[in-house]
Design goal:
Radius of gyration: 30 Å
Order of helices and strands: EHEHEHEEEEEHEHEEHHHEHHHHHHHHH
Shape: elongated
Oligomer: single chain
Largest sheet: 3 strands, parallel
Strand order of the largest sheet: 1-2-3
CATH class of the largest domain: Alpha Beta
Number of helices: 17
């Protein structure tokens, strides 16, 4: 493939960028980058009633956040009306279109369907033919001077020299009309690739009930852009092997339309969470801490009162335990607050009367520890108790964990005590002794 490849992503700014739209943008971007071509951004805002500047900005922000940079644009169709009018007049002059008058709406232009079959080769689905005898003449320019979707789309593709149209298969029904327009206007027919739509986990069309559906929502929920890009790339495309974690460079190198599936992909939230967790684990700790600070602040946990070194240690300690950025806040809250909530099930299981002497001994022994930053000293202190009672370490660690964190799952107990510090640890052990034992 040569550098002549030119693709476009043409969102309609009537709402946020949906995950399906993001995948279409990604496939166009990957195809352009793989072929040393150009990726054009075109805002299809001819729907005056529904298009908004806010939606346009949200789409631009989402594409930027995903790292899908464009080579030309953004072009706005609402600013190209003269171009559409010029081509509409050409069709009128050539007898391929005609005026229609409506007493209420005014004078529009309708395209004249001719011929029997308008077929095209699709790079995903193969040859597709359509019987144009079933397609009626259709409006290409409304009475207000604005073009219809099909007409503006074809004119822009022709004028901009688009070589490949990669889009969702919900556009298959539009393609016969567009093919007829390309031919009538004398434009070279681009190659089409219609991508099967994304389904929800239950096999139905993806919607709000399946959870987040827009890029903005996934961003707010604490997913990383690289993880989301990697995940949606594999929703309908395969690199040709079982590798699931791919860098952008690897995706660009391997992306071909031949490996786009004909079947519809199902969105798998569990897999997305797993993948996001892997990307979190791979981030440099400084970058991860930087991303987490806003979530810590939003949860009213003042990270300003703790040192950078302490926060880095805490993030390192938990980075393999959270799959989205807000999950870190949930896990780490006990380290920031003076008072904690205790899980009933954990209290019932581990803070029993039978563990009273263990926890009291732990309290007394830990009071004697001078340096809580010494894992060796903390470990020696607690293991002396297990030796005294001839018990496995878990029998002591779990009650202490619940006493100081409020739940039965946390990172390593010694590291947990180190980060909590002596004052918080002793205060919570004392509270446990007085409240539960």
């Amino acid at each position: 493939m040569t550098s002549k490849v030119k693709v476009r992503f043409p969102p309609s700014p009537t709402g946020l960028l949906h995950i399906g739209g993001a995948r279409t943008a990604l496939y166009n971007w990957l195809f352009a980058r793989h072929n040393n071509g150009k990726f054009i951004l075109r805002i299809e805002d001819t729907d005056q009633q529904r298009s908004t500047e806010e939606a346009t900005q949200a789409i631009l922000d989402s594409l930027t956040w995903l790292g899908l940079d464009w080579d030309e644009g953004p072009y706005h169709q609402s600013e190209r009306l003269e171009i559409y009018r010029e081509y509409s007049e050409k069709l009128l002059k050539d007898g391929k279109a005609f005026h229609v008058d409506d007493p209420e709406k005014g004078r529009a232009v309708r395209f004249k369907i001719t011929g029997e079959l308008t077929g095209f080769d699709d790079l995903v689905h193969g040859n597709i033919s359509s019987d144009t005898s079933l397609i009626e003449d259709f409006v290409i320019q409304k009475a207000d001077g604005f073009p219809t979707y099909n007409f503006a789309c074809v004119v822009d593709d022709g004028v901009m020299g688009i070589t490949h149209v990669i889009r969702g298969d919900d556009h298959l029904s539009n393609t016969p009309r567009q093919v007829a327009l390309y031919k009538a206007l004398g434009f070279e027919l681009p190659k089409f690739a219609h991508i099967p739509m994304i389904l929800g986990e239950d096999g139905s069309r993806m919607s709000k009930r399946h959870g987040a559906t827009s890029v903005t929502e996934y961003r707010e929920k604490g997913y990383l852009p690289d993880a989301l890009v990697n995940f949606i790339a594999l929703l309908g495309w395969s690199p040709g092997h079982d590798q699931e974690l791919l860098t952008r460079k690897e995706m660009i190198e391997k992306f071909t339309l031949k490996r786009v599936n004909k079947t519809r992909a199902r969105f798998d939230n569990t897999k997305l969470d797993w993948m996001n967790g892997k990307y979190i684990q791979g981030l440099p700790v400084e970058e991860l801490v930087s991303k987490l600070r806003s979530y810590i602040k939003d949860a009213n946990l003042d990270s300003g009162i703790v040192s950078d070194e302490w926060l880095h240690k805490l993030v390192e300690l938990y980075r393999e335990r959270f799959k989205t950025l807000p999950e870190f806040v949930t896990l780490a809250t006990p380290f920031f607050t003076d008072e904690i909530e205790y899980e009933d099930a954990a209290v019932q299981k581990h803070l029993k009367k039978g563990n009273s002497s263990l926890i009291k001994d732990a309290y007394n022994k830990l009071k004697e520890v001078n340096d809580f930053s010494s894992i060796t000293e903390l470990e020696g202190c607690l293991r002396s108790i297990t030796t005294k009672y001839s018990i496995g370490f878990g029998k002591l660690a779990q009650p202490i964990r619940v006493a100081v964190i409020g739940k039965s799952a946390s990172a390593g107990i010694f590291e947990t005590l180190e980060l909590l510090g002596k004052e918080k640890t002793l205060k919570r052990l004392e509270y446990t002794i007085n409240t539960f034992l």
